[in-house]
Amino acid sequence: MVDLVSQYEKMQEEIDTAVLNVIRSSAYINGPEVKAFQADLESYLNVDHVIPCANGTDALQIAMMALGLKPGDEVITANFTYVATAEVIGLLQLTPVLVDVDPNTFNIDVEAIKAAITPKTKAIVPVHLFGQCAPMEEIMAIAKEHNLYVIEDNAQAIGADYTFSDGRVAKAGTIGDIGATSFFPSKNLGCYGDGGAIFTNNEELAQVIRQVANHGQTRQYYHDFIGVNSRLDSIQAAVLRIKLRRLDEYAAARNKTAEFYNEAFKDIDQIETPSYFDQSTHVFHQYTMKLKGVDRDELRTYLMERDVPAMIYYPVPLHLQKAYVDDRYKAGDFPITEDLCSRVISLPMQTELDNEQLTYITETVKSFFNQ
Ligand SMILES: *Cc1c(COP(=O)(O)O)cnc(C)c1O
Fold first, then answer.
1. Is residue 155 within 8 Å of 144, Cβ to Cβ?
2. 82 CB less than 6 Å from ligand 1?
3. Residue of the CA atom closest to atom 5 of ligand 1
4. CA–CA distance from 153 to each of 12, 130, 247 (Å)?
5. Which of 59, 145, 244, 307 could form a disulfide with 180 if both were Cys (CB 3.0 to 4.6 A apart)?
6. What is the dihedral of CA 279, 160, 349, 370, to 10 degrees?
């Protein structure tokens, strides 16, 4: 699905030098590379505060802790997502309130959010799934009306631009009260291990986020509340600084791949290629298609046998996962999410696919339908 070795080889000298410099400096934790990366990312995202942390799941958890959410508070999020989003809600003993998504963009449904609000609702966590922003303008309006926090799960859409109806443009993750992202190796901005970050334009909140991520410490060895230990390594920061400079180039390569797939599959009735949302650019974390009247397992096996990887993101909705079984929900409650889980399939999406590989992938897919 991803070829991180070829990508590394194109910048090997630069990466090797940067990594060795960190090792030689011995500034392994919170060293100058971490501060420099933080500043680079603040400037790229045009956001006041970036707080690096250990991974994207921590970023979400720290965000919720910093907002002072308490057990029993309801947090609305999309049912069609990676489990981390709901996991931290559960871990903090908040109540996850799942809502359905838009069948075309795969992102959280605005009407479903409105219908899910109760007096206990405290926050909305939209996920910018597969590389495209959720409808943030409407979400921010709902949040304002009901006095709710918005935490953007931006693990899949770093670099995407959201355009408001007045023409203002903002980077994904910088629109809500807090944005959370992941630098897991296969993400659009990935390091060579684990990493994550939290973004905010709120100075006070930034201060609390830094304290939560550092054992609830207000000054050295003084702990005013229980926090966590979540840091980005200096080595990972050094890698990320180099890759951040290429992030827009990477997004362009991903879009070219998507266009190649779109063109190749446009006449196959059983394939619905991804929809574009007009208020967001797409950074194609995943290229996810919907199948119509196709045995998905059969297609996947056919592709696997011909060395074309294909993945299902995501096969099971959250409300049908054992860990999240809840009296409030049953099969059939989320028709769109359940339908998507049964018929989406994702093809290889990364920065290093050349025309020869793309031709092989698309011809193999087409040959399945022309058998
Ligand atoms: C990857 C991902 C996360 C978690 O990131 P980690 O760094 O793996 O903890 C959270 N939310 C979404 C939508 C993701 O894709």
1. no
2. yes
3. 56
4. 31, 11, 19
5. 59
6. 10
Span 240-259, mean pLDDT?
98
Sequence letter at residue 189 = L
Is the CB of 107 inside a 6 Å radius of any atom of ligand 1?
no
Q: Are strands 222-223 and 217-219 parallel, antiparallel or unpaired?
A: antiparallel
Question: pLDDT tens for residues 286-334?
Answer: 999 999 999 999 999 999 999 999 999 999 999 999 999 999 999 999 9
Residue 24 burial (C-beta neighbours within 10 Å; 0-12, 13-18, 19+):
exposed
Do residues 86 and 61 touch, judged by C-beta distance below 8 A?
no
Whole-number Å distance between alpha carbons of 39 and 45: 10
CB of 173 closer than 6 A to ligand 1?
no
- Give the residue, by CA position, lying nearest to ligand 1 atom 3: 56
E strands, 183-339, are 196-200, 217-219, 222-223, 271-272, 287-291
Paired with 101 in beta bridges are 108
Type of residue found at 282? H
**Predicted TM-score of the model (pTM):** 0.97
CATH for the stretch 247-369: 3.90.1150.10
Backbone dihedral angles phi then psi of residue 168, each to the nearest 5 degrees = -65, 140
Domain 4-100+107-244 has CATH 1.10.3720.10: no
- Domain residue extents for the chain: 4-100+107-244, 247-369
CA–centroid distance, residue 301 to ligand 1 (Å): 27
